[in-house]
Design goal:
This protein is mostly beta strands. The chain has one domain: Ribbon (Cystine Knot Cytokines, subunit B). 9% of the residues lie in helices and 36% in strands. The strands form four sheets. It has a three-stranded antiparallel beta sheet with strand order 5-8-9, with no helix packed on it. The radius of gyration is 20 Å and the shape is elongated. The relative contact order is 0.19. Keywords: Disulfide bond, Growth factor, Secreted. This is TGF-beta family profile domain-containing protein. Belongs to the TGF-beta family. InterPro entries: Cystine-knot_cytokine, TGF-b_C, TGF-beta-rel, TGFb_CS.
């Protein structure tokens, strides 16, 4: 079962669905299954997404980024098998000199955005969307 709750961006209070349906909503749904770690070892076999939280307070950006306090940026890690990846095989088929093709590397292939509220000055506060801030899936490229 999935529970969908729509919250006001500024007050973070749940909204009445009738109010929301009167205007075109923007939905961003993120579903990914992070690697499981048992005894310090990941269950990842190959190229996988690894959760990584960016805390704006820890990096000293909380004086101009007002909301959110941080976000899940994630990163890709793991090994790539040269023969098992379709993307790499397609690249190799397009180039005549195979020595020019580097070995495949685990890298993000799909990114997500985050909505942030920033203070440009004490009287200029804005809401903006920062694209490409979150790695959502990985592939051998």
């Amino acid at each position: 079962m999935i529970k969908l709750e729509i919250k006001d961006l500024f007050s973070y209070k749940p909204l009445d669905s009738r109010e929301v349906l009167n205007s075109a909503p923007h939905f961003e749904v993120t579903v990914f299954k992070p690697n499981q770690f048992v005894d310090g070892k990941s269950n990842c076999d190959g190229c996988c997404i690894t959760p990584f939280y960016v805390n704006f307070t820890e990096i000293g950006w909380n004086d101009w980024i007002l909301y959110p306090p941080g976000f899940w940026g994630n990163y890709c890690s793991g090994s790539c098998n040269e023969k098992s990846d379709d993307n790499h095989e397609i690249m190799k088929s397009l180039v005549t000199d195979q020595s020019l093709i580097p070995k495949p590397t685990c890298a993000p292939n799909y990114y997500g955005s985050i909505d942030i509220i920033i203070a440009l000055s004490s009287v200029d506060i804005r809401r903006t969307r920062a694209h490409g801030m979150r790695a959502l899936s990985c592939s051998c490229l």
